[in-house]
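User: Design a sequence. Structure:
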């Protein structure tokens, strides 16, 4: 167990494998969304997120640079969640499939973030919510996964905000949730998801979606500029996981029961 002490709360990295049940329920009442596009769902984090959301009844549009690969991923997801709704598209097609009211989750390696967003420029529309889960790990340039790259804008999420069309709302989240834990549908989750963004309403909308997954609780960590800190926690957890051979997550203690009121 890794403990980091702050002024008023403690952050704990807890191996999810030893958690027998969810320790708390969602802090935001679930809301319905027509569809969610997961860009990069052929990757580990995006695939696990797609599976978990589909289990809750959210229709998932899987996006990939290669539409054939996206279709194959959708078929693989459907075999694991037979009651889920999955469709495969190229990235722009996935965004268009969910429409202006749908939420887009960007879950791609940092080396692909800028190119992907450039290709989505004409698909994203003002008012749409983009949840960015990108992490600027040094592995993107053949470095160590336990090291971070410097980003001129301050963080990958801030880079995303700079690149999306004006009016697209950007929230940063999902950097400390283990992809392996999400993909293992038998694994009970009890983790916090650290959410950053410049609009409380946008963060709440992201939290309402993420907390449909049992065992995930979203915590408001402040403005989008705080993403430079939350993104770096991925590198920390990679180091912890390698040392202890686990899939650790983060829980914050001493928080109030009602986090989003």
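Assistant: Done.
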């Amino acid at each position: 167990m890794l403990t980091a002490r702050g002024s008023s709360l403690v952050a704990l990295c807890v191996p999810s494998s030893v958690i027998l049940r969810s320790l708390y329920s969602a802090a935001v009442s679930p809301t319905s969304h027509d569809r969610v596009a997961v860009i990069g769902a052929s990757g580990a984090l995006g695939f696990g997120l797609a599976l978990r959301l589909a289990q809750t009844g959210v229709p998932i549009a899987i996006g990939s640079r290669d539409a054939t690969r996206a279709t194959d991923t959708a078929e693989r997801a459907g075999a694991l969640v037979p009651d889920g709704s999955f469709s495969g598209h190229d990235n722009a097609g996935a965004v268009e499939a969910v429409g202006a009211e749908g939420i887009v989750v960007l879950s791609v390696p940092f080396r692909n973030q800028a190119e992907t967003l450039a290709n989505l420029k004409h698909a994203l529309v003002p008012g749409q919510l983009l949840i960015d889960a990108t992490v600027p790990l040094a592995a993107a340039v053949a470095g160590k996964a336990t090291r971070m790259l410097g980003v001129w804008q301050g963080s990958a999420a801030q880079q995303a905000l700079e690149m999306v069309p004006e009016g697209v709302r950007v929230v940063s989240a999902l950097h400390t949730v283990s992809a392996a834990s999400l993909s293992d549908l038998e694994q009970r989750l009890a983790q916090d998801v650290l959410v950053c963004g410049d609009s409380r309403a946008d963060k709440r909308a992201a939290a309402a979606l993420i907390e449909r997954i049992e065992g995930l609780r979203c915590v408001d960590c402040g403005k989008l500029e705080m993403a430079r800190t939350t993104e770096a926690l991925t590198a920390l957890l990679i180091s912890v996981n390698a040392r202890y051979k686990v899939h650790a997550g983060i829980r914050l203690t001493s928080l109030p029961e009602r986090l989003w009121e």
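Residues 1-23 have pLDDT under 50 and may be disordered. The first strand starts at residue 2 and ends at 5.
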